[in-house]
Amino acid sequence: MLPTSFTNVRVLDCSGASPFDGAVLIAGGCIVRIARAGQTIDAPDALRIDGRGGTLMPGLVEPHAHLSFTHFSQSVQMGDIPPEDHAIMTLHNARIMLDQGFTSCNSAAAAKGRLDIAVRDAINRVIFLGHACSRRAPS
Q1: For residues 1 and 133, is the Cβ–Cβ distance under 8 A?
Q2: CA atoms of 95 and 131, how far apart (whole Å)
Q3: How many other C-beta atoms are found inside a 10 Å radius of the C-beta of residue 11?
Q4: How far apart are the first and last CA of the chain?
Q5: Within 10 A of 5 (CB to CB), how many other CB atoms are there?
Q6: Cβ-contact 130, 98 below 8 angstroms
Q7: How many other C-beta atoms lie within 10 A of the C-beta of residue 36?
Q8: Are 31 and 24 in contact (CB under 8 A)?
Q9: How far apart are CA 58 and CA 95, in angstroms?
Q10: Where are the alpha helices (DSSP H) in the chain?
Q11: What is the pLDDT of residues 82-119, one digit of tens each?
Q12: Which residues of 49-87 are buried (b: 16+ CB within 10 A; e: fewer)?
């Protein structure tokens, strides 16, 4: 994956400091450089994304997730979902979390044994887009 340079962004670094205008370089799934307004990041091989003044911040962490819990009103009903369908629903829920800015979800239990583990492994192998590093940059 190419390094990615985000320019024209409002950086919220979550350190407690006030947000600031700047640019951010990501490589190998990690933040490698942050530049404040007026500074530049030299990365000629990086994919460049103009943030258009939007806020850029590290991914959020969900400390108590139940990605396999579905739309049923009673937990016992989740036992009736075929495991293949349930895996797809769980992957869908993981993608919803990623799209909302959560790059990590800590499982606090799954509706079926190993369901959260299988989904995690599929995301880590980039079989399904759910891993922040597997997302494609907007064209």
Answers
A1: yes
A2: 9
A3: 22
A4: 15
A5: 23
A6: yes
A7: 10
A8: yes
A9: 17
A10: 83-99, 115-124
A11: 889 999 999 999 989 988 888 889 988 898 889 989 98
A12: bebeeeebeeeeebeebbbbbbeeeeeeebeebeeeebb
Q: What would the two tokens of residue 64 be?
A: 């108590």
Distances from the Cα of 112 to the Cαs of 20, 64, 70, 71, 138, in angstroms?
44, 17, 12, 15, 35
- In this structure, what are the phi and psi dihedrals at residue 84, rounded to the nearest 5 degrees? -65, -45
SS3 content of the chain, % helix, strand, coil (to 5): 25, 30, 45
pTM reported for the whole predicted model: 0.66
Using DSSP's 3-state secondary structure scheme, residue 109 falls into coil
